[in-house]
């Protein structure tokens, strides 16, 4: 039975997190769930960046992670504000009901 290394475990975990996020984004129709799936994908990518930065002993991966975290923080604030305004206007966060952008 092959033994999986610690580095391979983190890479596999990052890929699994990313895949769960993609599948959740494609399957679910709720805006908040899709928003959380995007965050899950970003966390999977961050885990892969951190793993490679540790393996290569380079700080470039850490800088990418900080950049992705800053983008994710901005996405959270803007995205939740947009979802809240859509809910106030349409009284629903289902993406199928929001297919038109008319007021």
TrEMBL record:
<dbReference type="GO" id="GO:0030964">
    <property type="term" value="C:NADH dehydrogenase complex"/>
</dbReference>
<keyword id="KW-1278">Translocase</keyword>
<dbReference type="Pfam" id="PF00420">
    <property type="entry name" value="Oxidored_q2"/>
</dbReference>
<keyword id="KW-0520">NAD</keyword>
<comment type="function">
    <text>NDH-1 shuttles electrons from NADH, via FMN and iron-sulfur (Fe-S) centers, to quinones in the respiratory chain. The immediate electron acceptor for the enzyme in this species is believed to be ubiquinone. Couples the redox reaction to proton translocation (for every two electrons transferred, four hydrogen ions are translocated across the cytoplasmic membrane), and thus conserves the redox energy in a proton gradient.</text>
</comment>
<feature type="transmembrane region" description="Helical">
    <location>
        <begin position="6"/>
        <end position="26"/>
    </location>
</feature>
<dbReference type="GO" id="GO:0048038">
    <property type="term" value="F:quinone binding"/>
</dbReference>
<keyword id="KW-0813">Transport</keyword>
<keyword id="KW-0830">Ubiquinone</keyword>
<keyword id="KW-0812">Transmembrane</keyword>
<feature type="transmembrane region" description="Helical">
    <location>
        <begin position="61"/>
        <end position="87"/>
    </location>
</feature>
<dbReference type="GO" id="GO:0050136">
    <property type="term" value="F:NADH dehydrogenase (quinone) (non-electrogenic) activity"/>
</dbReference>
<dbReference type="GO" id="GO:0042773">
    <property type="term" value="P:ATP synthesis coupled electron transport"/>
</dbReference>
<feature type="transmembrane region" description="Helical">
    <location>
        <begin position="33"/>
        <end position="55"/>
    </location>
</feature>
<keyword id="KW-0874">Quinone</keyword>
<keyword id="KW-1003">Cell membrane</keyword>
<keyword id="KW-1133">Transmembrane helix</keyword>
<keyword id="KW-0997">Cell inner membrane</keyword>
<keyword id="KW-0560">Oxidoreductase</keyword>
<protein>
    <recommendedName>
        <fullName>NADH-quinone oxidoreductase subunit K</fullName>
        <ecNumber>7.1.1.-</ecNumber>
    </recommendedName>
</protein>
<comment type="similarity">
    <text>Belongs to the complex I subunit 4L family.</text>
</comment>
<dbReference type="InterPro" id="IPR001133">
    <property type="entry name" value="NADH_UbQ_OxRdtase_chain4L/K"/>
</dbReference>
<dbReference type="InterPro" id="IPR039428">
    <property type="entry name" value="NUOK/Mnh_C1-like"/>
</dbReference>
<keyword id="KW-0472">Membrane</keyword>
<dbReference type="GO" id="GO:0005886">
    <property type="term" value="C:plasma membrane"/>
</dbReference>
<comment type="subunit">
    <text>NDH-1 is composed of 14 different subunits. Subunits NuoA, H, J, K, L, M, N constitute the membrane sector of the complex.</text>
</comment>
């Amino acid at each position: 039975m092959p033994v999986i290394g610690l580095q391979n475990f983190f890479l596999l975990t990052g890929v699994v997190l990313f895949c769960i996020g993609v599948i959740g984004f494609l399957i679910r129709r709720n805006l908040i769930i899709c928003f959380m799936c995007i965050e899950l994908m970003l966390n999977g990518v961050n885990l892969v960046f951190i793993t490679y930065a540790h393996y290569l002993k380079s700080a470039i991966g850490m800088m990418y992670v900080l950049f992705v975290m800053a983008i994710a923080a901005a996405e959270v604030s803007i995205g939740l504000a947009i979802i809240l305004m859509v809910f106030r206007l349409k009284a629903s966060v289902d993406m199928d009901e929001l297919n038109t952008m008319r007021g």
